[in-house]
Design goal:
Oligomer: single chain
Mean pLDDT: 79
Largest sheet: 5 strands, antiparallel
Distance between the termini: 50 Å
Strand content: 5-15%
Number of strands: 13
Shape: elongated
Structural class: alpha+beta
Length: about 525
């Protein structure tokens, strides 16, 4: 039977097993891994290219998702998360060293056991240089058991922490609202003589107080707030911003009492509308260059992206899939909608050439030798390229942003291919590895990775007091296990943890390499 047919059978059987509820618990991608191991036991294999392709799809999807907020998140939390990942890896090394010595695991194999526990090819490199074949055998034996331990541990985190997941999700949203306050609109009377007879361009209220002027009501007439409009005493203005920005705006405008501006007057009709950004020509262009006020008499009051309301400024950039709230005159709404897109049907049709361009660039980047012949590897290159593409949104005519559903499907397909191939590779050598020494090596690796996971869980939950969504991201990111992140996202129904995961992932990837060298040095002393 051909390798291709075997792959299809594993995908079909494994996905079916993963979808069957077992006392409210779903194996999900673990069903594919276990199915693959059974096929591998009987000598069937999936072509290794599916491993690379699956990893590429999955990592690129994650990178696109986290790209827009990655730099800000890493600046804020990167150093702290890096220290966490390093501490977690050291905890695993100590456990591997202690348990390995107690069980009599040879020193020549221990570095391979440790790198196999993390399924880290980077960490395996110094182990191979030191101990060659022994390290390679230990790595191949340990990593399937370690991987299963990670996935089961991730699934059990809510029970281990005794949390109510829906309540934690609600708390998470409250925390996000504090970090990214919701936008509100209020109307006030202009009473400050200092702003009277000055144009909105001169006042630059967005720069001054962070607010956006939405409507002006003067003598019963609604006025669109274009940059050349001059404010007059007793004008009633509607402004949009966060609560703190609104208060700053009130101070600037000198309002004395709150008023309500009707959307309809005898002289003018204005309306609010939410528009989906699908027109490629507006993607990546700042609002002040789109000149929506001058062209359509329209003002953007909200930008919603990835479940968050973003602050609006003249320099805000629109990305594919953003949902914006605009206020405009009724007679321009149709033209404005066409200009921004709002084509739901086309939004569901994903063009894949930008995906493959981004992954190809990442693959080339990861293949370039750097200092000492070291390279970041294809997965690392794809991660960097994906983050850059997600942050840029577009480069010339190429739109890199994907719709949420297309991104989710890309990640799921990649994970399924990876798990099927990983399962057959693990199952093929399983029979030969079942010796007493092999069992001891597997136990050592599993305990090492569990020690790391418990350390990450303790730090995230007990020390940092993080919400369970961020705890799962810290736990999975500290060992650089993207499939476990996907499992945690499915458990919580949230994908917002990807930004936290991305902040800790780089050191989660590098820490096992650093700690393996430390382990090898310690072994020379024993």
């Amino acid at each position: 039977m051909s390798s291709f047919v075997i792959t299809l059978l594993i995908l079909a059987v494994g996905a079916t097993i993963g979808s069957i509820p077992i006392k409210g618990f779903y194996l999900e991608s673990m069903g594919l891994l276990l199915t693959g191991m059974v096929f591998g036991w009987f000598g069937h294999t999936v072509h290794p290219v599916f491993v690379d392709l699956g990893v590429a799809f999955f990592i690129y999807g994650i990178a696109l998702q986290i790209g827009p907020g990655f730099i800000e998140s890493f600046k804020r939390d990167g150093l702290g998360f890096s220290l966490i990942a390093l501490s977690v890896s050291i905890a695993g090394m100590v456990a591997a060293l202690v348990v390995g010595k107690l069980l009599g695991v040879p020193g020549a194999s221990l570095a391979g056991v440790y790198s196999g526990a993390y399924n880290s090819a980077l960490a395996l490199i110094p182990a191979l240089n030191a101990n060659g074949v022994d390290a390679a055998k230990a790595f191949g034996l340990v990593y399937p058991f370690s991987f299963m331990a990670v996935m089961f541990f991730t699934a059990l985190v809510p029970k281990l922490t005794r949390v109510n997941v829906p309540e934690e999700v609600s708390r998470f949203h409250d925390e996000q609202n504090k970090k990214y306050p919701p936008m509100v609109t209020k109307s006030f009377s202009v009473m400050n003589p200092g702003v009277v007879n000055r144009t909105l361009r001169e006042l630059d209220l967005t720069h001054l107080a962070g607010i956006t002027l939405v409507r002006i009501l003067r003598d019963g007439k609604l006025i669109s707030p274009n940059p050349e409009v001059e404010l007059q005493l007793n004008d009633i203005v509607e402004i949009a911003g966060t609560e703190s920005q609104i208060m700053a705006g009130v101070t600037v405008l000198g309002s004395e009492k709150e008023q309500v501006i009707p959307h309809r007057t005898k002289k003018r009709f204005m309306a609010d509308r939410r528009i989906l950004i699908t027109n490629k020509s507006v993607i990546g262009i700042p609002l002040n260059r789109l000149m929506l006020q001058e062209r359509f008499g329209a003002t953007v009051t909200r930008i919603r992206r990835g479940g968050l309301n973003l602050p609006v400024s003249p320099h805000s950039v629109l990305l594919y899939g953003d949902k914006v709230t605009v206020v405009a005159r009724k007679n321009t709404l149709a033209k404005l909608t066409v200009a921004l897109g709002n084509d739901i049907q086309s939004f569901g049709k994903q063009e894949f050439f930008p995906v493959f361009i981004g992954m190809a660039i990442g693959g080339l980047l990861g293949s370039i030798p750097m200092f000492g012949g070291f390279s970041i590897g294809v997965p690392g290159g794809i991660l960097i390229a994906g983050i850059a593409a997600g942050r840029a949104g577009r480069v010339g005519p190429v739109i890199f942003t994907m719709s949420p559903q297309s991104n989710h499907d890309l990640k799921r397909l990649g994970l399924m291919l990876f798990m099927a191939a990983l399962g057959t590779a693990s199952g093929k050598g399983l029979a030969q590895g079942i010796t007493i020494q092999g069992v001891y090596a597997a136990i050592t690796g599993v305990i090492a990775i569990l020690a790391s996971l418990l350390a990450a869980l303790f730090i995230g939950r007990k020390i940092l007091k993080k919400n369970i969504i961020d705890v799962l991201a810290i736990t999975t990111g500290s060992i650089a296990c993207t499939p476990a992140l996907e499992m945690s996202n499915n458990m919580t129904g949230q994908e917002s943890s990807a930004i936290t995961y991305a902040a800790i992932y780089p050191m989660g990837l590098m820490a096992p390499l650093l700690v393996t060298n430390l382990l090898l040095w310690i072994l020379t002393l024993l």
